[in-house]
Each structure stands twice: as C-alpha cells, then as structure tokens.
Amino acid sequence: MENSSKTKKMTGLGRGLGALLQDSEKISAPRTNARLSPTDVIGSMNEIDVSQIEANPYQPRTKFDQESLQELADSIRVQGIIQPITVRQLTDDSYQLISGERRLQASRLVGMTSIPAYIRTANDQQMLEMALIENIQRENLNSIEIALSYQRLILECNLKQEELGVRVGKNRTTVNNYIRLLKLPPVIQAALRDNKISMGHARAIITINSDQSQLKIFNKIIEEGWSVRKVEDEVRKLGMMSSISFAAKKQATINQEIKSLQFQLSSFFGAKVSVKSNNDHKGEIKIPFTSQDELKKILETLKFK
C-alpha cells in the first residue's frame, strides 16, 4: 500500500505534462535497465543507463547556456538528481527523452552512468506537445525557438492558434505575435535568437512592410544601440511617410488617367476638351467651340439633334 501511494505521487510531474501523459496499465515497476512487464505500473521511477537514452527529436530548445549547465552539473554532483527525467521506452534497451534535457546533459558532465527516470507512454504528437510545454513552462526559450515550436504544433499537430493558446496558457494574440517573427528576414531572426535585439525591437520592426526598410532599422539598432522606444518612433515616422507617398502615387495615377481621358475626348470631338477632377472624384468636362459649325459638329458627334 505504501509503495502504491508513493507511485501515485510520483506520477504527477506537473499540470502540463499530467494533462498530456496517459497512464497505462501495461508498464513498469521500479527496476534498473529492464524491460517493463505487463503487470508493472506506469510512472514508477527507474534507474536507466544514460547511454541508452536518445535525445528527443521534438526538443524545441536548440541552444543551452553552458555556464548554467555547469552550475546544474555542480549541484547534481553534490545533491544528486532531485527531479527524475521522463522518457518513453522504444525497445528492451533503448529509451527516448520526453523531458529533462538539461538534467540529462548535466548528469553526463558529472560522469553519471545511470539516471532516475519516469517511464511514460506517448505518441509522436504527444512527444512534440510535451517537449514544447515542458520547455516553455520551465525554461527560458528564446523568442525564435518559441515561434518555431508554435509553428510546429500548428502544422504537425493540426492545431488552430486558439487551441494552441489553450495548451500553452497563452492568448491567441500572443501566439500570433510569436509566429509573425518567422516572417522577419533571416539575419533579424538570428539576432533575436542570439539576444542581440529584444522581442520589443522585433515586434516594432515586423510592422514595416518592406524587407529593405526592416533591415535599415535593424542595422541602426545594432550600430547605434537604438532603444525599443526609438525604433517605435522611427517606425511611426516611416509609416507616415509611406502614407504620404502612397497618397502622392495615387494622385499621380489619377492625374495620368485624367490626361489620358482628356486626350481621348479631344480626339473624339475634334476639339480641345478640358477634364477636371478632385479627390472626391467630382469634377467637370468642358468642350469649347468657337463657331456655329464647331458646335454643330460636336452635336452631330453626340448624335444630338
């Protein structure tokens, strides 16, 4: 009874994982490097050889801070593994990591040959979801890693942004803001990934429609150390200039169309026709004549008797 009680406590690793992990009646009682029998209970803690554990292919984190990793290794050397990692069993002697990448790497730095682990059942979609949620909730992923992970969940797990928001505890707007970062030029994405610019910088830049203008602002941030406020101000000015430029181009187009119409009417009537129009598309057409014969010709052209 006591062991059963402890097993139950061990299975609840956290809300995010608990919601995704499905208990099975066909997995393992505590043992070391042994295939789980059908009578074993899932969620029990096992000592597993670190050499038998392969990386999680769905791990969204691509870079780990080496100083932080070394600090964790020093802690493990003194205190041991306080929180077991979580894996799924692939074969009799191979496992795949679900969560606990930093703990596993730090254990290898220390030289540990085995590590305590919970064994779970999970399909590929659950692996991806768990890896993402585990990292977002417990680690500091950079913005690009989060954006890529969100995108993978949407594309590979067929989730809508609203559904994804529920899974990771974010609203739809936040999810969308991250995914939009992937539309930035690669050099800006890399700078955001490497913490050369902040999320605030990136969110301001993404509102600019032109890649060339985005890169121009980005270079100012890097070369002159522009603050987020400075970038936002420059983006607003650029937006106003774009609006003025658009209005000017629109008016030029209208003027050209009027000139073309004026030429066609002049040719049609055989007289110098004047066409005027304002921004509200209101105006007038004048067909001048200097004699009775010219008026008669215009009326005949209009078939007006």
Automatic annotation (TrEMBL):
InterPro entries to which the protein is assigned, alphabetical: Chromosome_partition/occlusion, HTH_ParB/Spo0J, ParB/RepB/Spo0J, ParB/Sulfiredoxin_sf, ParB_dimer_C, ParB_N
Residues of the ParB-like N-terminal domain: 46-136
Keyword S-adenosyl-L-methionine listed: no
Molecular function terms, GO-annotated: DNA binding
GO cellular component: chromosome
GO biological process: chromosome segregation; positive regulation of sporulation resulting in formation of a cellular spore
Keywords: Chromosome partition, DNA-binding
Family of this protein: Belongs to the ParB family.
Identification of the protein by name: ParB/RepB/Spo0J family partition protein
Species per Swiss-Prot/TrEMBL record: Dyadobacter flavalbus
